Amino acid sequence: MKTVGVLGGLGPLATVDFLDKFYRCGDACQDQDHPPVEVRLCTATPDRSAFLDGHGPSPLGHLREAAVSLKKSGAQFGVLICNTAHIWHRDLELASGLPFLHIAEQVRSFLEHARTPVGLLCTPWTVKGRVYSNVLPREKLVEPSAEVLEHVLMPAIRLLKANRFDEARQLIARVLTQFERAGCEAVILGCTELPIIAKACATRMQLIDPNQLLAEAARRYAMER
């Protein structure tokens, strides 16, 4: 089995959600059947969106340091538990020498045979940084407008980080309704906090959980000989 390096804390609940899914998706019968995992909860990392907007320090130094630390601790590959931070996916691979599974690549594989457009819930910089649009065909992806990103999704994500889940769910519900009207049959929960409230969101659309897909991919890769 390979040792998994989890670069998390961006935020902490998203990392807990990933680890829960990672350990539940296997067929282990005892502790020793699980792959070893190294975790870094990098909660001191500067805000990714604030930096990209030009309002704060760079998070890249913190992320590189954590990736190098994972490598030194024996990790053989990494996962990054933040969609927006995948803007620096290649930087982290080069800095650490670790291959990092890409969260959007796991979604692309899942949607390989999708025939209808898929909505994307995310931060503004997940859109601007083309985290998903560099991987998914543009004709398959329905991205939120700049107004929705700034005035609905970012406030919802801030509420999630403050554990104000019901208020966040109400904002997310507004965007889900817009995607339904646009003809989407599925929506990507493209911020790693969003799956935390997914079950409470009433919608006919399929809610695609990148955290779940990344956990399953990490499990498969770790178990390969």
Could you explain the architecture of this structure?
With 225 residues, the chain is α/β, with parallel strands linked by helices. It has two domains: 4-103 and 212-223, 3-Layer(aba) Sandwich (Rossmann fold); 104-209, Rossmann fold, CATH 3.40.50.1860. Helix content is 44%, strand content 13%. The chain is built from nine helices and eight strands. It has helices spanning 12-24, 48-52, 60-72, 89-96, 103-110, 124-128, 146-161, 165-181, 210-223, and strands at 4-8, 37-41, 77-80, 100-101, 118-121, 141-142, 186-189, 206-208. A four-stranded parallel beta sheet has the order 2-1-3-4, with helices on both faces. A four-stranded parallel beta sheet has the order 6-5-7-8, with helices on one face. α6 (124-128) links the parallel β5 (118-121) and β6 (141-142). α1 packs across α9 (210-223), α3 (60-72) packs across α4 and α5 packs across α9 (210-223). It is globular, with a radius of gyration of 17 Å. The mean pLDDT is 94.
Gyration radius (Cα, Å) is 17 Å
Q: For the largest sheet, list the strands in their spatial order.
A: 2-1-3-4
Tally the helices: 9
| CATH fold descriptor of the largest domain | Rossmann fold
Q: Which of globular, elongated, flat, extended, rod-shaped describes the shape?
A: globular
**Range of helix content:** 40-55%
Which structural class should the secondary elements be placed in? alpha/beta
Question: H/E order of the elements?
Answer: EHEHHEHEHEHEHHEEH
Poorly predicted segments:
none
How many beta-strand segments?
Answer: 8
Largest sheet: 4 strands, parallel
- The CATH class designation of the largest domain is Alpha Beta
